[in-house]
């Protein structure tokens, strides 16, 4: 089952009609190292390519590159793939006066079929599987936690960066006097996001110095990611216009609160609102209100059971999911009780900030064990795969409800709610868990998993060779790469 790919020629003409100043097309996709890769095509050349039904070709090796553009072990330097644009994702980049159109792409072969490594296509396919098998759909909303930095100069050169505030001048949901000089920056971000068609739910100060959170609206999985990437790019550009830098790196500064990339996820009936209600009315026109009430209650219970099985699958496969969600050793430095980061166990709790899954409604959870190092396409692929496994098996939701951090429970208390071993506390352990999880591998596809494992294991070796080991090297690398 391949995802439906819209004809770019039709949507391209519509986009150009509404954006006549476009001069350059930015074809954009994300690597397994979570870098955004771009090929820029002048508009005249792009029109000619569409007329001739040609897509831009790249070496397939780019999908297997480590940091520093080294090829992962076992990957071939030969072969090519094509970038098929999806103009339903197109927007004019903030600050470009409408001259730059950013477009997300599918990675396809010469026949136009998605590559095994194309996480964007795989995510669409997994969502279609969920819809077909369970008559359910997923809505995803991301939180963007970002730290704003100001440069430190030595002479005329930028020597380093530091946060806009000190730890005692900035606090969670606060508005200290020291925050006031920077409110123009924060409001400029909100205005810029609106200019690229992102309507924020809310925004507020976070706990770390210079740290803010922007809450994005919910969409279906692929769209939610592309809104996330658009938001991050726009925030970066606004910060640059103020002479600052914005980073989603996990922990830009030692001993300070870290950035997460929390995901709000809800499992919903396909036609939950008026369609089901009207069908019930027509089918039961002559039945009494109590019968209608019982039917509605049964549907609600069934939908809740589906949601619980879906999220039970996520909890059960969390060790493997962490290989994608926390894809760097520094990612694990923020995971500890008392930091609202998700904790050390695959646990859940109602409105509990100290567990991996914070339950907000019967069908909606916040997934906290994700950070800005992650490729969100891969993360959602892993989450949906685990959820589908849970639904197919009819898993019961265990691991909660917790009212405090799972690590603060006794071993007997954890055992009573189905919590056994702690989650992996470093990347190699998560990668090992992914290698051992055959069910997740089956749904993701062996081509995707083997390529990812090679890139991540090779990337760890490159990191040590180029930056050394230890905490100081990790922080130095974070601040420069993200």
UniProtKB/TrEMBL annotation:
User: Which source organism does the UniProt entry give?
Assistant: Penicillium cosmopolitanum
What InterPro entries does the annotation carry? Gln_synth/guanido_kin_cat_dom, Gln_synth_cat_dom
The similarity annotation says:
Belongs to the glutamine synthetase family.
- Keyword set includes Ligase: yes
GO MF, one term, reads: glutamine synthetase activity
From which domain of life does this come? Answer: Eukaryota
Q: What residues does the GS catalytic domain cover?
A: 119-482
Q: Which SUPFAM superfamilies match?
A: Glutamine synthetase/guanido kinase
What keywords would UniProt list here?
A: Ligase
Name the PANTHER family on file.
GAMMA-GLUTAMYLPUTRESCINE SYNTHETASE, TYPE-1 GLUTAMINE SYNTHETASE 1
What is this protein's name? FluG family protein
Per the record's keyword annotation, is Nucleotide-binding included, yes or no?
no
């Amino acid at each position: 089952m391949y995802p439906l790919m819209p004809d770019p020629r039709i949507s391209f003409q519509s986009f150009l009609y509404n954006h006549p100043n476009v001069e350059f097309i930015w074809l954009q996709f994300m690597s397994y190292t979570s870098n955004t890769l771009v090929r820029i095509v002048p508009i005249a050349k792009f029109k000619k390519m569409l007329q001739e039904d040609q897509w831009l070709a790249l070496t397939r090796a780019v999908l297997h590159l480590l940091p520093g553009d080294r090829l992962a072990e076992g990957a071939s330097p030969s072969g090519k793939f094509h970038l098929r644009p999806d103009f339903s994702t197109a927007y004019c980049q903030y600050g470009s006066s409408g001259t730059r159109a950013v477009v997300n792409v599918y990675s396809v072969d010469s026949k136009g079929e998605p590559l095994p490594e194309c996480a964007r296509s795989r995510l669409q396919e997994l969502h279609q599987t969920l819809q077909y098998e369970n008559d359910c759909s997923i809505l995803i909303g991301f939180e963007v936690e970002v730290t704003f930095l100001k440069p430190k100069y030595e002479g005329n050169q930028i020597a380093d960066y530091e946060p806009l505030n000190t730890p005692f001048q900035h606090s969670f949901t606060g508005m200290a006097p020291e925050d006031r000089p920077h409110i123009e920056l924060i409001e400029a971000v909100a205005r810029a996001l609106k200019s690229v068609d992102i309507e924020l739910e809310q925004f507020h100060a976070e706990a770390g110095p210079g740290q803010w959170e922007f809450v994005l609206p919910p969409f279906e999985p692929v769209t939610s990611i592309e809104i996330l990437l658009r938001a991050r790019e726009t925030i970066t550009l606004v910060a640059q216009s103020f002479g600052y830098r914005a980073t989603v790196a996990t922990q830009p500064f030692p001993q300070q609160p870290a950035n997460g990339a929390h995901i709000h996820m809800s499992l919903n009936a396909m036609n939950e609102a008026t369609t089901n209600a009207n069908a019930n009315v027509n089918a039961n026109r002559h039945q009494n209100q109590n019968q209608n009430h019982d039917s509605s209650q049964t549907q609600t219970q069934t939908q809740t059971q589906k949601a619980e099985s879906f999220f039970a699958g996520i909890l059960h496969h969390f060790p493997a999911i962490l290989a994608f969600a926390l894809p760097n050793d520094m990612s694990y430095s923020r995971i500890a009780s008392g930091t609202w980061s998700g904790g050390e166990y695959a646990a859940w709790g109602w409105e509990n900030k100290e567990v991996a899954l914070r339950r907000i409604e019967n069908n909606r959870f916040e997934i906290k064990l994700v950070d800005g190092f992650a490729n969100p396409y891969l993360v959602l692929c892993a989450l949906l795969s685990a959820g589908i496994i849970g639904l197919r098996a009819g898993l019961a939701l265990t691991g909660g409800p917790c009212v405090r951090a799972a690590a603060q429970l006794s071993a007997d208390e954890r055992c009573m709610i189905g919590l056994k071993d702690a989650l992996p506390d470093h990347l190699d352990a998560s990668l090992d868990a992914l290698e051992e999880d055959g069910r997740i591998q089956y749904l993701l596809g062996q081509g995707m998993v083997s390529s990812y494992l090679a890139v991540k294991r090779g990337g760890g070796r490159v990191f040590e060779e180029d930056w050394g080991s230890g905490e100081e090297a990790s922080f130095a690398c974070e601040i420069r790469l993200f």
